[in-house]
Amino acid sequence: MGIYRFGDFELNEDSRALLLAGREIEAQPLVFDFLAILLRHQDRALSKDELLETLWPGVTVTEASLQRVASLARGVLRQSGMETALRNLPRFGYRICLDQPPVSENRPADAGGKPSSPGSPILSARSAVAGRKWHEAAASFAKADAADELLTADLEEWALALECMGRPAEAIPLLARAVTAYGVAGERLRAASPAITLARIHLERGELAVAKGWHKRAAQLIDNAADSREHGLWCWMGARIMGAEAEPEQALALAEQAFAVGRDLDDPVVESLGLIYRGFFKLCLGETKAGQEDQDFAAALGLSSDVDPVVGGILYCNILWACRNFGDWARANQWTSGYEDWCRGHGLEELSGSCRLHRAEVLGVHGTLKEAEALVRAALDQLALDAPWATGDALRVLGDIHLAAGEFTEAETAYRASHAAGWDPQPGLALLQLEQGEAEAAFSALERSLVGNGWPTLQRRGMVLATLAKVAARTNRPERAKEVIAELETQPQRWPMASIQALTAEAKAELFVQEERLTEAARELQIACSRWNEIGSPINVADARLSLAALLIQLGDRAGAELELGTVLAVARKVDSPRLMRRYEELTGLLAGAKREALG
């Protein structure tokens, strides 16, 4: 038992107290013991087996438990900029390295201008970061910067706090300072990390050329350190850049490399980021089941580890993006619920614009249209700050919401604005054109949407194809409709989603109506209703039931039509859709006329 002093910390084994600048701070018992063991044996590395046996004597636990404790310990050390002292030795274990760097004419990267003291702004900032109090952290970092108390690592934490507040543009100069400071101190590998973060922020701002520049700068800094955490992050960022340049095969290869580095280093951040994008690009290339499995595992791995909110947001948004493009709304709703709980535990009162957008679309499918509209408008305001590239996508979602409500003028305005922002607003715009009697324009637009090798086009292909089949049937192109349906139905592994199966059934119903095979058309619409019910999409269920009610009226099944219309009425009131209500009233009048005719 002893007392160990390192940096601003003091760990007392006898009293089991951990002090930071003379003030006792909280540490979980296992975290305290983990740090104490490493400090007691700071002359050597400790294996995972040795640590597991010491921390959990006589109890069988997995390495994931040890990784969790190490991650929490690193978070404690981060309060004084010492998180890098805890070294993860790939495939072996851990070591704490407290050797002081040699004296240099240049100020070391992690040497502040003034020593920290109890109550100083820098300690308040680090404590706020540890407590996920991002606004408080940012304000304290600004005061500490004015007092010349910042270490270079603090610049990265300050940037993180600003990102968590939805102000990534303000993080850019701080990260650039960190790259410069690490470089001046000769810590080239450490400089690569903020350079990669700069590449990510610029990419999310739609500034691809700048992102590529920082990515290349990071490659220079990493040099030959291919087994480093920084190299894993570089590969992950490279995958995103390749995706933006419509090179999905190269993107997939880089994501695979990132995952392998993270797995070898036992680093849940690098591993989960590599895995989430490996799944993302598998989905682009048609490996649907494997892609979904990768993404679900990546999110579970990341959100069960001590990842920062930015990484957590990337994992969530990535899954939600794929769910939206494939119409996989049941999966989207499940992950949304889990992520909201995670956010509450990580101080995220205000979600990023992308996260708000994803939630808005999920709400538009499962909830009420007015709530969804309010949320997507809030997302538009936030996207202007943190992800302006996605503004066109948000306008597309807004158009879909207006279309579902039957507000066709507003829907067209939103779709046109989406297109002007560089986004393809399909298949929503084509469905609007169908409503407006412009079926030929809808068909041509959907055919154009299938052209290209970018990831939005590849991931959205199933939904566009299924809509195209409906439009082809309605424009008297039965051969094209059958060709598209065959592509969807002969690749069930690629298109297993209930939404695509529902749209395909609706397309087949359109064909049967054209061929006056109304009974078979009604059967396909019943299948569509069942599939839409599986994913909890009341508006789509109501649309299918309206079509089914119209067919049943033609077939003389008035009782069946009344049953379908009664369900539609309940949905129209719940989601507040004037369009559904208008269509319900039209068919109710038609049904009443059929009754009068039958009675006469």
UniProtKB/TrEMBL annotation:
Keyword terms, alphabetized: DNA-binding
Keyword Cytoplasm: no
DNA-binding region: 1-98
Ranges where the OmpR/PhoB-type domain occurs: 1-98
One of the record's GO molecular function terms: DNA binding
Keyword Calcium in record: no
Protein name: DNA-binding winged helix-turn-helix (WHTH) protein
